[in-house]
Design brief:
By secondary structure, this protein is mainly alpha-helical. The protein has one domain (about 5-85). Helix content is about 55%, strand content about 0%. The longest helix is centred in the last third of the chain and has 20 residues, at about 65-85. The N and C termini lie far apart (about 40 Å). The relative contact order is 0.10.
Length: about 90
Amino acid sequence: MRVRSFEDLRRHLEEQRVVVDPARREEIIQSQLAPMAGTGLSDFGLLAEWKHLVEWPTVMFGRIPEAMFRRFVAALILVLGVAMLIPR
């Protein structure tokens, strides 16, 4: 990929689904959250965090079945427990 300017780099990266600017990622997330406005749901602070963590933000809505949630929690506890055993 040949890049002649930052704008050129930004455009090329967006074509590859990488949004460089966190403010632009925030705009994308907010536009995807807009349909849920007025429902009383909170983003739980995820907008402030995820605009810095993901390259191509995509908001998904849904419910996690209780059985699946319990498995997720068990897996998370296992991973965190193993991580604590790794010497630093």
